[in-house]
Structure formats: structure tokens, C-alpha cells
Write a structure and sequence with these properties.
The chain is mainly alpha-helical. It folds into 2 domains: 163 residues, MFS general substrate transporter like domains (Growth Hormone, Chain: A); 154 residues, Growth Hormone, Chain: A, CATH 1.20.1250. It has 15 helices and no strands.
Length: 346
């Protein structure tokens, strides 16, 4: 019989797997296609292929939760490095990325008794991997390959351990974070919170971010905010955490364009809502945790699209976008969320 590991341990294990996979993906991107003449096309293609199919993989694993797609997903990322052609390699890379993300979601929301903390830790791990992969490509373009492969191998070994556990086969029950609306309405509103927040994340003014150290701090605060938000929602309730963290972040974000400390505080608070949107979706789609996670990643992609086609012209536009879309996000959370704490948070 497969043993069950604690949801918190699952969150930590998949945070490392997520981190390792993102290191490999971003090292590949920044060493193979970053300096190509059509970088923007590679970037938007990567986002589309990495984010949009996750709902499909989610549907597969919702139907067959015993299926392990983490280990094969990591293998596909590794195979991408062996291919000399960039386009086929990108397909392998993004397919593996999808599979690892969905596997992490399934293993951290199933059996968690409605808690959002474990999935927040899992999601937060990716922020550290994104910046680490870029730094390896920039400063260690040769040895970085072996470091990326080393992280990927460690992740694969962990995935083999997780493969023998029962977490991904447990029900995604206990999520009581949605308002008394129809499932379709809640789903649409939760999707809107992710899409709007995604674009606001790109619109936050950060003229202070000019050095490597500052970039690292920015991604660290994003990751810590995502992880902390899940546990805060477990303790204080989903809607309360989402609304107050967004409102509290506004003065820091708007006053922090040239003040790093203020801006980082705002980014940490702003990032705390990531797992709340997923928790709300799980409340209305408890039989489809994989698809629910895929809905959030589709929202992330939609929210990121404008940055590839439209440059924010000035600081006034930055401020207006942050204010308007944050207000929209808060309104959506007020409509679709509720404050029932998880069993462990009560």
C-alpha cells in the first residue's frame, strides 16, 4: 500500500522540483534563443505552450489520478537539451513544463483538507527557479549547463520518491472558499482575478530594479509572497487574505517606483493571492483539481499577453493600470470568495 506524506512536506518537495524544472527551462531559453532576432516570438510561444495545455494535462490526471506525469515531464525537459533544433526542443521543454506543474498541483491540493498553504509553497518555488536559471545563463553559460542538469537529476530522484506515495490519488476535498454562486460564475470571476493580477504584475513600476542583486530580491519576494499567502488564507480566510493583501500592497507599489524597500513590500503582499484563486476554483470544481489549476495558468498567460504587443507609455499609465485592475481584482474576490478557514486553520 502506498504511504501518504503530509501536505506540507509535499509542498516543500514539489517546490524544489518546481524550482529545478524552472532553472532548466530558463537556462535553456536564455542560452539557446534569448539572443535571437525574434526573442519576443520565442517568449510568447514558450508562455503559450507552457501555460495553456496545463488544463488538458489536468483533465488527464483528474480522470486517472494514479498516473505519474512528473517523472516523464522532467525527462522531457532533459531531452530538450539533447536536441539541436530549437523548435522541437521548445516543444519538449514546454510539454515537460506542463506535466511537472500539473503533477505538483495534484500532489499538493489532493489530501490537503482544503488547505492552500502547501500549494502556495509549491507555486512559490518556481519564482526562485526563474531567476536562478537566468543568472546561470548570464554568468555561468558553460558550467551552468551541468548545474541545471544536476538540479534536474535531483528533482527526478525526488519525483521517483513521490511516485510511490498516495497523495495524488486522494480527493481534493475540504475546500470551502467560494461564495454561494453558480460554479460557472465563480470560475469566471476567479479566472478574472488571475488574468488581471498577471498583467498588473508586469505593470508595477520598478525603475529601482537595475542590478542583479535587486532582481534577485524581487523574485525572492514574489516567491515568499506566494508561499505566505496560502498559509495566511488558511488562517484568516481566502477572501479576507486576498482583499486585504491587495489593498495593503497598493500604497507600497505606487510609492515604490524608485524606492526598493517599499516596492518589495508591495510585491510580497501583492503575490499573496496566487493560491487563493486556486482554492476558490477547487471549492466549486472539487472533482477537477487539475483542470482548476489549468484555468489559473491560462489566466496567467492571458494577463501576460499585452506586454508582448503594447509598451506602457509613461508613469501615469502605470499608475492607472495598477489602480484600475487591482480594484477589479478586489471586486472579483469580494464576489466569488468567502472567509471559511481550512480545517487546520480554524
Amino acid at each position: 500500500m502506498r504511504k501518504r506524506i503530509s501536505p506540507d512536506l509535499a509542498g516543500v518537495l514539489f517546490a524544489f522540483i518546481h524550482l529545478s524544472m524552472e532553472i532548466a527551462c530558463y537556462y535553456w531559453l536564455f542560452t539557446r534563443v534569448r539572443d535571437s532576432g525574434n526573442w519576443w516570438l520565442w517568449a510568447v510561444s514558450y508562455n503559450a505552450l507552457a501555460f495553456l495545455p496545463q488544463a488538458l494535462w489536468g483533465a488527464v490526471t483528474d480522470d486517472r489520478p494514479e498516473l505519474d506525469i512528473c517523472t516523464p515531464g522532467l525527462a522531457l525537459v532533459g531531452i530538450a537539451y539533447a536536441l539541436p533544433w530549437n523548435l522541437p526542443a521548445l516543444l519538449f521543454l514546454t510539454c515537460g513544463n506542463c506535466m511537472v506543474h500539473v503533477a505538483g498541483a495534484q500532489n499538493t491540493v489532493r489530501g490537503a483538507d482544503g488547505r492552500m498553504g502547501p500549494s502556495g509553497v509549491f507555486v512559490g518555488g518556481g519564482s526562485f527557479g526563474v531567476i536562478a536559471g537566468q543568472l546561470l545563463a548570464r554568468f555561468l553559460p558553460g558550467r551552468g549547463l551541468w548545474l541545471s542538469m544536476g538540479f534536474l537529476l535531483c528533482a527526478a530522484l525526488l519525483s521517483l520518491y513521490v511516485r510511490g506515495t498516495a497523495n495524488r490519488t486522494l480527493p481534493a476535498s475540504g475546500y470551502r472558499h467560494a461564495a454561494a454562486l453558480g460554479a460557472a460564475s465563480v470560475g469566471l470571476l476567479a479566472f478574472a482575478t488571475v488574468a488581471a493580477r498577471s498583467y498588473v504584475g508586469y505593470a508595477i513600476p520598478t525603475e529601482w530594479n537595475t542590478t542583479v542583486r535587486q532582481s534577485v530580491l524581487l523574485f525572492v519576494c514574489m516567491g515568499l509572497g506566494k508561499a505566505a499567502g496560502g498559509y495566511a488564507a488558511d488562517r484568516f480566510g481566502a477572501r479576507r487574505t486576498a482583499v486585504w493583501s491587495l489593498l495593503a500592497s497598493l500604497p507600497f507599489l505606487l510609492a515604490g517606483n524608485d524606492r526598493m524597500g517599499l516596492s518589495l513590500a508591495g510585491i510580497t503582499l501583492f503575490s499573496m493571492t496566487m493560491s487563493v484563486s486556486l482554492g476558490i476554483l477547487l471549492s466549486v470544481f472539487p472533482e477537477s483539481p487539475g483542470v482548476s489549476f489549468g484555468i489559473t495558468t491560462a489566466g496567467l498567460f492571458l494577463g501576460s499577453l499585452p506586454i508582448f504587443f503594447w509598451a506602457i507609455p509613461d508613469m501615469k499609465a502605470h499608475v492607472l493600470i495598477v489602480l484600475i485592475l487591482t480594484a477589479v481584482t478586489v471586486g472579483c474576490f469580494l464576489l466569488c470568495g468567502r472567509n471559511a478557514a481550512s480545517k487546520k486553520g480554524e
